[in-house]
Automatic annotation (TrEMBL):
<keyword id="KW-0539">Nucleus</keyword>
<dbReference type="GO" id="GO:0006364">
    <property type="term" value="P:rRNA processing"/>
</dbReference>
<dbReference type="GO" id="GO:0005730">
    <property type="term" value="C:nucleolus"/>
</dbReference>
<feature type="region of interest" description="Disordered">
    <location>
        <begin position="1"/>
        <end position="20"/>
    </location>
</feature>
<feature type="domain" description="NUC153">
    <location>
        <begin position="189"/>
        <end position="217"/>
    </location>
</feature>
<dbReference type="InterPro" id="IPR039754">
    <property type="entry name" value="Esf1"/>
</dbReference>
<feature type="compositionally biased region" description="Basic and acidic residues">
    <location>
        <begin position="40"/>
        <end position="56"/>
    </location>
</feature>
<dbReference type="GO" id="GO:0003723">
    <property type="term" value="F:RNA binding"/>
</dbReference>
<feature type="compositionally biased region" description="Basic residues">
    <location>
        <begin position="57"/>
        <end position="69"/>
    </location>
</feature>
<protein>
    <submittedName>
        <fullName>ESF1-like protein</fullName>
    </submittedName>
</protein>
<dbReference type="Pfam" id="PF08159">
    <property type="entry name" value="NUC153"/>
</dbReference>
<feature type="compositionally biased region" description="Basic and acidic residues">
    <location>
        <begin position="1"/>
        <end position="19"/>
    </location>
</feature>
<dbReference type="InterPro" id="IPR012580">
    <property type="entry name" value="NUC153"/>
</dbReference>
<feature type="compositionally biased region" description="Acidic residues">
    <location>
        <begin position="81"/>
        <end position="93"/>
    </location>
</feature>
<feature type="region of interest" description="Disordered">
    <location>
        <begin position="40"/>
        <end position="128"/>
    </location>
</feature>
Amino acid sequence: MLLQDIDKKEDRKKNKEMEMEITWGIGIKDKAEELMKKKLNEDKKELTPFEKLMQKKREHNRQKKLLKKQKSEDKEQTASDSDDSEVPSDIDMNDPYFAEEFNKPEFKKGKSKKNKIADDEVSNPDDVKGKAELELLLEDEDDGKAHFSLKKIQEAEGTTKKSRRKKKLREKMIEQKQAVPDFEIDTKDERFSALYNSHLYNIDPSDPNFKKTKNMEILIQEKLKRRPADMPVEKQVAPKKSKQETELDLLVKNIKRKTKGVKQK
């Protein structure tokens, strides 16, 4: 009995070992790619703009080489598959009958449809999507080479917002000093005489929209010159006297009247 139990246990152990499946390796590639991407992202955080640009160019070149290699391998695989599937192994192409039959358009048309269906079945949607994204990433690489400038990158790194603001302000001040007026107002032009005579065109320097310019000063001075001659003469009205002045005048008049009466007596 003991020996039988031992034999049964060994048989069960062997059966279990035979039924086991090795599943290691599934997802290792994806995990490795994720780790690589994570590592690259961490490195990018510590890189300068120039180093990031150089790393991006290296990555573009590497992806471009991989794309070319993959395309060439796909072409070779397609060519070998088509060569193997075109003619069965038991047919002699040296036979004039078979050579004539295989050169007919009907056979070529059917063969192209068959190859197209096979390519559609074999192609993986994920691979097609990856190729399209890679081509889109690399399509502007040649155009970007002409725009690469080490000097501009170094200037961008060493220039701060404050210095750029000061530089713009300094340039603006220089432009204002060097600016030449486009025209000079002609005060003798009679078409604009209303500017000097009409109250509708009075100038208010306290207005927020007032701009003190060279031509504006000329216009104001011309208005001041013409105003005395053009304005109508107003009657001068005597200023009103205060109460004290009125009382003083009455007192003076009374004294004069009294002194005059005394003299007459």
